[in-house]
Structures are given as structure tokens and as C-alpha cells.
Amino acid sequence: MQNVQCEAFVLGVMDYGEADKIVTIFTREHGKLRGLARSAKRSRKRFGGALEPFARLSLQLAMKDGLSTLNGADIVTVFPNIRRELVKIGHAAYACELVERLVPEAEQNNRLFRLLAAYLEQLDRFENDPSDRRFFEANLLKVLGYQPALGRCAACDTELADAPDLRFSPSFAGLLCGKCGKTGKPIAAQTAALLNRAMDTGRFGQVRFSPGELAEAGELLDAAIACHLTRPLKSLAFLRETGA
Asked: Which residue, among 67, 66, 233, 213, has the nearest Cα to 140 in the 3D structure?
């Protein structure tokens, strides 16, 4: 057992027994972990209101294989402005569920930690913008090594800069040129260029999609993410129901 102090985001919380909670966290230092917070439903002194979804915490953690133990938590921020709007809560929950579902346990990933932090800060500071969600998804795929091929045909490796009739193929994990892509979702070259730019800049607010581009980018990214999931995302169903 190793006692550590680490910074973390709360990805998910579930009750365990009468008094305890099991918390899934994404730490800067140790990646994704699951921890047991003993008496979390009773002890205001040790945890207070810290163990809330997408809260950013400083944790006292006893690390061990399997289920670690949370010994205490100090709040860095709970992103109060996100919690005032249902749509923002839905997007924050979606980002955290994506990280929880796609990231292996105990694998450090500083780039992904910074990306999640930047998206939650963007949601907290500014009005919700659908482009920010797609920006987050595109960079999430890139950081995890799941980046779809957008610059060259995923089948024949032809340069796509001036190619007409582009289509996205989930089975090829990228765009296909007109010769290779007889089926799949049509994607405008400008949409593909904006997605590439989003993954190159790495800064929220630098790339904005028009409504048409946003719809195309959304279909492509939803399909690219779905390839790596074994079951549907609960938070995504909520976003679709609310039209967020």
C-alpha cells in the first residue's frame, strides 16, 4: 500500500453498503483509479461535499491493486457555474463518462488530464457552445491514439486536400476518397479541415463550426467514438433527449 497526495477529477460515484461510496477518479499522477471512501455518506469532516461528479479535488489516497482507499479530500473547485445549468451539467457528465469508459486503469496521461481540465473550465467560464464539445471529442481521440484519418484516404492513401465526395467509414476509421467511398456519411472538405485544425491547435475557442459543419463533424465523431465503446453512454442519451 502506498499513501499519496494527488490531484483528481471525480468521474463517477456509487453507493456501497450503508455508509461507503466507491469513487472513480482520474488523477494527474496515476491515471484512472477506483477508490473506496469509507463512511462517505456519514462523515462530513473527511469528505464534506467533495465527492461530486466532475469535481476537481486534492486527494489523500492509499493506493493498492484493485480498489484503493480514499482517506480524505479537499476541494479545488466544483465548477459552480456548470452546476447552475442543466445543459452544462450534461456536457460535463458526458466528458467524464467518455474518460471513464475509454481510458485504461492506472495509466498516467497528463495530456488527457489537461484536456479534461480545459474543457470543464471552458464550460464553467463561458456560454455552452456545441463546437467546444466537438473540439473536446476530436482531441480526446487524438490523445488516446484513436484519431480518425482525415488527411489521406484511409483505404488507398490518396491525398484528400482537393478530393470531392469524401465519406467517413467507421470500419476504416477515417475518410475515404470518391473512388473508395461508395457508402458512408458524406463529409465536406471544409469540415475535415476544421477537425484537423482543432486537433492541431489544442486551444478551446480557436475553432468554430457552422451549423452544417457542426452536424457533419458530430456524425463523424459520434461514429468514431462508438467504435471504441462496448455499450451506449448514459450521458449521451441525456444530451440527445434534451437536444443539447
From this structure: 233
From 71, 28, 67, 74, select the one nearest 50 (Cα to Cα): 74
User: Is the CB of residue 115 less than 8 Å from the CB of residue 95?
Assistant: no
pLDDT tens per residue across span 126-164: 999 999 999 999 999 999 999 998 999 999 998 987 778
C-alpha cell at 155: 483505404
DSSP secondary-structure letter at 140?
H
For the four alpha carbons of 8, 128, 244 and 176, in that order, the dihedral sign comes to negative
Amino acid at residue number 27: T
Domains parsed from the chain with CATH numbers: 2-77 (2.40.50.140), 82-242 (1.20.1440.120)
Contact yes or no for 177/153 (Cβ under 8 A):
yes
168's CB contacts (< 8 A; 6+ apart) are 148, 174, 175, 176, 184, 185, 187, 219, 220, 223, 224
Are the beta carbons of 9 and 96 closer than 8 angstroms? Answer: yes
Residue 79, burial from CB neighbour count under 10 angstroms (0-12, 13-18, 19+): buried
Q: What is the mean pLDDT of the chain?
A: 92
Write out the H or E segment, with its range, that includes residue 191.
Answer: helix 189-201
Pairing of strands 56-63, 2-16: antiparallel
Computed over its alpha carbons, how large is the radius of gyration of the chain? 20
* pTM of the complete model: 0.94
